[in-house]
Design goal:
Rossmann fold, 4 domains, six-stranded mixed β-sheet
Length: 598
């Protein structure tokens, strides 16, 4: 294994009376691509802050190479400065790099960094981070509030970056595309898998099965010791003392393992009477705001039991379309007819239902008392909250003290208690960990009613949707049977932004005998694609060879194999450097051509 450029050694950190981390080891190699996976509340964000040097551990060491620059993009970035360009250049980035990256994320560099949406703030913070070109880049839930176009842009930047990158994310499709190894934060420690996220879940399941077997053996051992002590009374008290201490230790180990296991989330929707067969029908719907056309001439029919996903760039009008289809907003043209006997529950991405004065208790029981009606039956607030993994000591806390994932779970708890036959979820996956996403997905798959889902989570859409409606933000809308992958295959290029109009550089510009090319030649474009493919593959080859050479017995067993692997590793590193230089040269030429600078 290569020497890490940034590492944690035996790190411990207390959270009040309990340990949040107890002996964490984690190392990031140069130009590695890794993810940090774990449940909400496991401490992933805290671990990133320790790696960034923003939080000091109670014990253990943070080790980094001299002069190493580490940049952390937090979940809720704070934007400052006169303009987005000022903000993006504050960390030491060249202003032209900051400007280019802001524009690549669809942001105006001259715009003031106030009044931004969550997606805009996220894109600005990512542009700043990549413009800084740090040695290590730490990304905490970078895809939250990003549309699919921005996520794909982020994937491209990660593929091209020279930084070591560690990512915390719940987005499976994103992690599968960009990671080479995984770190799993579980039970206060970190395990490492030297493969990308596509291999993580089978690997984690094996570890979980082994731990379950270990827990079963511990239960049996406690049972045996308890039985022995029950019959080995005072006559052998001195000899019994050792076994008694062992039993107490095993009980403590069992109690700690139960405390670390937060339990399983329980989701069930309260069923209403079935709706009519036709849920809604829209014909020729159009909607514009000022001079901007969001939707033009769109028609659809939603039947009982359909699972409809709505996708598109931020600001394309997805939420507007949902509200038109539900009859909350009148279209400028066209018509919408709702079916009969509809009980609609709508979970809003803005979390507007949660106010500052609310506690978790009052949010679940807004009429007072200690009961909440769930599926037509009264349940105690504390018991129902426990289904959504809330502790008793959280019930009287204000909702403002809850994390993003906890607030999302609270909204789901409120919504699912109400009877429905049409469930509308606007960005339900934001801030949820993968375990919770799995439970939510299972509940939605079993939901007897109709589902309308607005989401940027491609994997979530593929697992659930029976049809996908895509908006391009310029008035076009198309509906495709199936999920995200089906939409892409049947509508290539639908969501790609239009080519920018040519820029005029003066009224009386002198004509040129031959206009310079606006883009790379076909040969250079093909070469650029080949270089990008090699840049994506070479780090994996280097990591594989480093793992081979990390075997301490290889030279003794196979001297020629050791020499061959060493030569291959040196050649791969040289090839990576040469490929990067060639790519940088071509990429700089491509950007200059697009800007009309050559």
């Amino acid at each position: 294994m290569a020497v890490p450029v940034l590492a944690l050694r035996d790190v411990r950190l207390a959270d009040g009376p309990r340990w949040l981390f107890d002996g964490v080891d984690l190392g990031l190699e140069a130009r590695g691509r890794a993810c940090l996976v774990g449940r909400n509340g496991a401490g992933k964000s805290t671990l990133l802050r320790i790696l960034a040097g923003q939080t000091a551990p109670d014990d253990g060491d943070r080790v980094l190479s001299p002069g190493l620059k580490v940049t952390l993009v937090a979940q809720e970035p704070l934007l400052e400065g006169e303009s987005l360009l000022d903000f993006a250049a504050t960390g030491g980035a060249a202003r032209h790099d900051a400007e280019s990256l802001l524009e690549s994320f669809g942001l105006d560099p001259g715009r003031a960094p106030v009044g931004l949406s969550g997606g805009e703030a996220r894109r600005a913070s990512l542009a700043r981070a990549f413009a800084e070109q740090p040695d290590v880049l730490l990304l905490d839930e970078p895809t939250n509030h990003l549309d699919i176009i921005a996520i794909e842009r982020l994937e491209t930047l990660i593929g091209r970056a020279r930084s070591s990158i560690l990512i915390v994310s719940h987005d499976r499709a994103f992690l599968e595309r960009v990671t080479q190894r995984c770190f799993w934060l579980e039970s206060r420690k970190v395990r490492r898998l030297d493969e990308g996220f596509a291999a993580f879940e089978p690997w984690a399941e094996k570890h979980s099965a082994a731990e379950a077997e270990e827990a079963r053996r511990l239960d049996k051992a406690i049972e045996r010791e308890q039985s022995w002590l029950s019959f080995g009374v005072t006559a052998r008290r001195a000899r019994n003392e050792g076994r008694r201490r062992r039993l107490i230790a095993m009980r403590g180990e069992k109690a700690e393992s139960l405390r670390l296991s937060r339990g399983e989330m329980t989701l069930a929707s309260a069923a209403a009477a079935p709706s009519g067969k036709r849920v809604l029908e829209a014909k020729g719907v159009a909607k514009a705001y000022r001079d901007r056309i969001l939707i033009q001439g769109f028609s659809t029919r939603v039947q009982r039991g359909d699972r409809v996903a709505i996708v598109g760039p931020n600001g394309a009008g997805k939420t507007t379309l949902v509200k038109i289809l539900l009859g909350e907003i009148e279209p400028d043209a066209g018509s919408v007819r709702l079916g009969s006997n509809l009980d609609i529950v709508y979970v809003d991405q803005a979390r507007a239902d949660l106010t500052e004065e609310m506690t978790l208790w009052s949010a679940l029981a807004p009429l007072g008392g200690d009961q909440v009606m769930v599926q037509g039956q009264p349940r105690h607030v504390a018991a129902y909250a426990k289904d959504f993994l809330f502790r008793d000591d959280q019930l009287r806390q204000p909702v403002t003290s809850l994390s993003g994932g906890e607030r999302n779970r609270l909204l789901l708890a409120r919504a699912l208690a109400r009877p429905s036959n049409v469930l509308v979820l606007d960005e339900p996956t934001n801030d949820l960990d993968m375990d919770t996403l799995d439970v939510l997905e299972e509940m939605l798959a079993d939901y007897a009613g109709t589902l309308i889902l607005v989401s940027h989570d491609r994997d979530f859409i593929d697992r659930l949707a029976t049809s996908t409606i895509a908006l391009d933000g310029r008035g076009r809308a198309v509906e495709t049977p199936g999920g995200w992958k089906d939409f892409l295959s049947q509508n290539p290029g639908f969501l790609e932004p239009p080519e920018p109009p040519p820029v005029r550089r003066g009224k009386a510009a002198a004509p040129r005998s031959a206009a310079p090319p606006a883009k790379l030649s076909f040969k250079d474009q093909r070469r650029l694609g080949e270089l990008e493919a090699r840049l994506a593959a070479l780090p994996d080859d280097i990591s594989r060879l480093e793992r081979v050479l990390a075997d301490p017995g290889l030279y003794r067993r196979d001297p020629s194999g050791f020499a061959k692997a060493s030569a291959e590793l040196e050649k791969a590193r040289e090839t990576l450097n040469e490929t990067e230089e060639s790519w940088l040269e071509l990429e700089a030429r491509r950007e200059a051509l697009e800007r009309g600078l050559v």
